[in-house]
Design a protein that fits this description.
It comes from Streptomyces spirodelae. This protein is mainly alpha-helical and 542 residues long. The chain has 21 helices and no strands. Helix 3 runs antiparallel to helix 7.
């Protein structure tokens, strides 16, 4: 029995909720809801180059504005996940899921008709608010309709939906951008959201926590403000190519201070948005760290991969989507099967190996240049997708099964928060590193370009897209900038992937040290079962 004020063991509440008769159908509906959210982010990856182009082709977004288009969604998403999880536990997960999909669909419609990068950033934030209520509800409902022994397999299939979204998104986005205006990549969410809403109303059961906690508005405010200031400071430092600027230090430092205040508040309040007591469990803490660090590495890598494929190699958005297919296909293939590997080798061995392979994939990017055969890139993407598929499901199972069933919404919020925060920081930190290194590399070529004002030189040095746009405007005189721009980007990418790979290695170390291995009693049971079967076989032969 759990003591008051301490987290109840997960097993205490498992017997209260029998398996739902239509649980596999419900899982399919939850995957459709998840697809709506994941599809949009993966579509945006191939649309970034288009958005960076001047109107009417795009909206003339700078690299920092593109980073904010990604991170405004991610930060609002991460900041409201705790509240969304608690509201799901309190009001009912089905109601919260329906509300989140409606807000997400509205934000998609507004984003499709944005007139400027600023409007797109705001409407992406609206989409992030809706997604914050979708993600924890899907996983919480899953935990409540499946019995404990089926949860690892169900979570593996749920994670496979992420792979499906990553696979379908770039291809769908490429087709749309080849035939329609850029806003169609957001408008495509509408039919997916509509189908999901109808299916949820008809098929998904509702559930809630019989003893929900109170909301924590101060905690939510501190976490959102802290994350926004921290990421703003990091992105601004990359844009200015100087992380010692007072503005950068003030905003990033203020963000860190607010996040520390958030943690202190969560430790002392009687109704925390983030219950820090769960981090006392090694399985929980190590799994959360693995989720955050692997998404830090992955999202940062995806950000520069799209520019490498389109800007350096010259492929169209549709071709870029097809080239990303191995990354997603590997997740779809292996994520539902990860539970078998965990059952055989244990979560520690599987997650550690997965993170080491993620690091290896990152380091392999250092061998790419402007003429590398495409099959090399495809192998790297497939290895990274396979590795991700063996990190996400085991880590998610460790997080969710460390919490009582009735707190599934809060557990799902923690899982998704660290994933989104890791991804946001990955885009901000690695994107800023890429921007800084690129500016250093292209600076010499821009200095020698005749009749170029200082302001235009600074703007052109922010990203490869800005440099290539300047080259187009200059006509024949700008052709000399194309080769240096591509070379500078590749060099900057090599530096960035080394940092990304180091983060993945850190995740492997954390998991190897703190994530529990295969329980000894499981091995003993297997040996005992095997011995009984052998004795029975011998007795039968006699």
């Amino acid at each position: 029995m759990s003591t008051p004020g301490s987290p109840a063991p997960a097993g205490e509440s498992e017997q209260a909720a029998p398996a739902h008769l239509r649980r596999w159908t419900v899982l399919g509906v939850l995957m459709l809801s998840l697809l709506a959210v994941v599809l949009d982010n993966s579509i945006l990856n191939v649309a970034m180059k288009t958005l960076a182009q001047p109107a009417p082709t795009g909206i003339g977004a700078t690299q920092s504005e593109l980073e904010w288009a990604i991170n405004s969604y991610t930060l609002v998403f991460a900041g409201f996940l705790f509240t969304a999880g608690l509201l799901g536990d309190r009001l009912g997960r089905k109601k919260v899921l329906l509300s989140g999909l409606l807000v997400f669909g509205l934000g998609s419609l507004l984003a499709a008709f944005s007139q400027s990068p600023g409007e797109l950033i705001v409407y992406r934030a609206v989409m992030g608010l809706g997604a914050a209520f979708v993600m924890p509800a899907t996983l919480a409902i899953l935990m409540n309709v499946f019995p404990r022994e089926e949860q690892p397999r169900a979570i593996g299939i749920w994670a496979g939906a992420v792979g499906l979204g990553i696979a379908a998104g770039p291809i769908t986005g490429g087709v749309l951008l080849d035939h329609y205006w850029w806003g169609s990549v957001f408008l495509v969410n509408a039919p997916v959201v509509f189908l999901a809403l109808v299916a949820i109303l008809l098929l998904v059961p509702d559930s809630r926590d019989p003893a929900p906690g109170r909301l924590d508005p101060l905690g939510v405010l501190l976490s959102v403000a802290g994350l926004v200031l921290l990421v703003y400071g990091i992105i601004e430092g990359g844009q200015l190519a100087d992380f010692t600027e007072p503005k950068v230090l003030a905003t990033a430092g203020g963000g860190v201070l607010l996040l520390l205040l958030f943690l202190l508040h969560e430790r002392r309040t009687t109704h925390p948005a983030l219950d820090v007591r769960y981090f006392r469990k090694p399985a929980f803490s190590a799994a959360v760290a693995a989720i955050g660090l692997v998404f830090f590495a992955l999202m940062g890598a995806m950000f520069f991969s799209v520019f490498y494929i389109q800007s350096v190699r010259g492929f169209s958005p549709l071709e870029a989507g097809l080239l990303l297919l191995p990354l997603a296909a590997a997740q779809m293939i292996f994520a539902p099967r990860a539970a078998k590997a965990v059952a055989r080798f244990g979560a520690k061995a599987v997650c550690t190996t997965g993170l080491l392979l993620v690091a290896a994939g990152m380091f392999a990017f250092t061998g790419l240049d402007e003429t590398t055969p495409l099959w090399v890139l495809e192998v790297i993407f497939f290895v990274m997708g396979s590795a991700m598929a063996h990190v996400m499901p085991p880590a998610t199972v460790s997080i969710m099964q460390a919490m009582p069933r009735e707190k599934a919404g809060s557990g799902s919020a923690v899982n998704n928060t660290f994933r989104q925060v890791g991804g946001a920081l990955g885009v901000a930190v690695l994107g800023s590193l890429l921007s800084t290194r690129y500016r250093d590399g292209i600076g010499g070529a821009l200095e020698t370009t005749p009749h170029l004002p200082a302001g235009a030189r600074h703007e052109a040095g922010e990203s490869i897209e800005a440099t290539l746009a300047l080259a187009d405007r200059l006509g024949p005189a700008g052709r000399a900038l194309v080769a240096p721009a591509k070379s500078a980007f590749v060099d900057a990418m090599h530096t960035t992937v080394l940092a990304s790979g180091a983060v993945a290695l850190l995740g492997a170390l954390v998991v190897a040290v703190w994530l529990p291995g295969k329980p000894a009693e499981e091995g003993a049971r297997e040996d005992e079962t095997g011995g009984e079967e052998e004795a029975e076989r011998v007795g039968t032969e006699r």
